[in-house]
Amino acid sequence: MYITPQQDLAARKLAMPMLRDIGVKNLSDMTFHEMRWNDLCAAEKRLKKGGADLMDSAESADTERRSQIETAYDGIIEAFDAIRAEKDIRTSEGSRDPRAQAQSKAQIAKRPQYEPRTSGDDEAAEVSYALKPEQRFTTWAQGRTNSGEEYRGLSVGQYLRSMVVGGKTEAERRALSEGSDSAGGYTVPDVLSAHLIDLARAESVVMRAGAQTVPLTSDTNNIAKVLTDPVPG
Question: Can you list the alpha helix ranges (DSSP code H) found in 128-168?
Fold first, then answer.
């Protein structure tokens, strides 16, 4: 999670009751991996209500205050998304207990390690696996790539707004520069496309029925199939 100082300041100014209910002075003070499951759920619910209340108040606000409300709202959504990601991590790891480290086990496993190589070793093939319906594509993407650092602080809400009014931050402008709108270029960054894929999966009847998702990691992917019945020999 990346909360800017401007977002922290705006949230303190406009949503202090919400912060008191959560038990923090700033949004950036929240350490999600150390929170109990019930506290995570309560904070998620409170952030959702706090964000909705802020946006309702924006309708009658002047231009300056509306800008502050948008800044605070962006920070709240960033914290809300971080809580959902933390809950997904714990669900995928099979435990609702607080975690010792902010990174998931999958992210820790992806850390670069030095392993001596001998001549003739082949490059290790990347192993793909299927995501269960309850597992988020966003969490998988963050665990295997560093693109989240490049687009840190950019939420789907900010991405959609920037498509209409233009990029306000460096991350938004970088995302908009990936390609043309009509060709789907705005969704090139993994941090954006993964969010959109999760939204589509959540509305899919097939996914709710239990279908799994196989992430594709290149333009060409080979899937084995059985052509004939096996013959004993």
Answer: 137-144, 147-150, 156-165
Q: What is the CA radius of gyration of the chain?
A: 21
Closest C-alpha to 198, from 115, 158, 159, 141: 141
pTM (two decimals): 0.48
Q: Which residue(s) pair with 131 in the sheet?
A: 213
In the DSSP assignment, the letter for residue 185 is G
Residue 20: partners with Cβ closer than 8 Å, 6 or more residues away? none
- How far is residue 28's CA from residue 31's CA, in Å, rounded to a whole number? 8
DSSP-assigned states of every residue in 18-76: HHHHHT-SSGGG--GGGS-HHHHHHHHHHHHHHHHHHHHHGGG--HHHHHHHHHHHHHH
Per-residue pLDDT of the chain (233 residues; tens, 9 = 90+): 678 888 889 888 888 999 999 888 888 888 888 889 999 999 999 999 988 888 888 888 888 888 888 888 988 988 888 888 888 888 888 888 988 877 777 666 655 454 444 544 444 444 556 888 878 877 777 666 554 455 555 566 666 666 666 666 665 566 555 544 544 445 555 666 777 788 888 888 888 888 888 887 777 777 788 888 888 88
Give Cβ neighbours of residue 152 (< 8 Å, ≥ 6 apart): 2, 171
State the first-to-last Cα distance of the chain, in angstroms, to the nearest integer. 57
What does DSSP assign to residue 131?
A: B
